[in-house]
Amino acid sequence: MAAAKNEDKLPTEKAESLFSKEQLLAAERFQRKRDVINAILEPDKKYTIKTVEQMIEKYMKGQVK
């Protein structure tokens, strides 16, 4: 019997999905942060969930002028 190849056990990189501002505004996940998303995201760009969460966190920690 042939031994299993090590290649089969290597983790594959998972490509993150990109979403538009409109999709993120409609997402249930960001329902309570719609105002922030509307303020910080550009309409013609695509974002990953991770990027948006980081942007929201940075915005929320920003200093008040």
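The record above closes out task 2.4. Task 2.5 opens with a second protein, given below.
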Amino acid sequence: MPLYEHVMIARQDLSNTQAESLIEHFSTVLADNGGKVVDNEYWGVKTMAYKINKNRKGHYAYLRSDAPAPAVQEMERLMRLHDDVMRILTIKVDAHDEGPSIQMQKRDERDSRRERR
């Protein structure tokens, strides 16, 4: 099955548990349609570059999935209809990277890979 990475931004006035329950909800949508979530990460509340729906901040979540295209389309459809989800991004990838995403790595670990100018 194809591999996907999804990033979702939820409204800032949700609690952390509500934002994490959104991740679980959309994971079950994928599972019900024949896919599976390989890994998920909750990145927390982050400030955005510009306002979206009068919000300056948002809860960011990251999902790695192994699912057929119809399952991903159904999940995206439900995300667009959900009032708490502001933005979504889905990317098809060839392989999932091992370990945590770049957002979850410590700054020291990231700096060792590339020198600052």
